[in-house]
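User: Hi! I have a protein structure encoded as tokens and I'd like to know what sequence might fold into it. I'm fairly new to this, so please keep things simple.
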């Protein structure tokens, strides 16, 4: 499931494998797990060959998953969710990501 850079590309997004940290430069995100992403308008292309497209508050991913953002909460098609509080995003699976400037750190 693609998680938009998380709070970054997201967040936008991260992706199938959870990254421990990511750095965003303009429309490009590079993560320490080798995943990278490039955003063009409402589309994001990931280095693993997947992509996502955002329409308003919904994101549709090339793997068939999707998400809907309502306020500070995001609901994913697999039944999980996340909530953004300040610069930190808390996921229902217990993980969290904190954005500090252009960097995002996840546990």
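Assistant: Happy to help. Inverse folding works backwards from shape to sequence: for each of the 107 positions I chose a residue that suits the local structure. Here it is:
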């Amino acid at each position: 499931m693609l998680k938009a850079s998380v709070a970054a590309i997201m967040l936008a997004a991260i992706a199938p494998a959870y990254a421990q940290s990511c750095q965003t430069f303009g429309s490009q995100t590079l993560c320490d797990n080798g995943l990278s992403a490039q955003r063009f308008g409402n589309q994001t292309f990931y280095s693993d060959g997947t992509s996502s497209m955002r329409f308003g508050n919904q994101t549709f991913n090339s793997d068939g998953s999707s998400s809907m953002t309502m306020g500070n909460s995001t609901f994913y098609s697999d039944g999980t969710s996340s909530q953004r509080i300040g610069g930190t995003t808390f996921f229902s699976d217990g993980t969290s990501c904190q954005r500090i400037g252009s960097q995002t750190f996840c546990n």
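A useful reference point when you look it over: The chain has no helices and twelve strands. Feel free to ask if any position seems puzzling.
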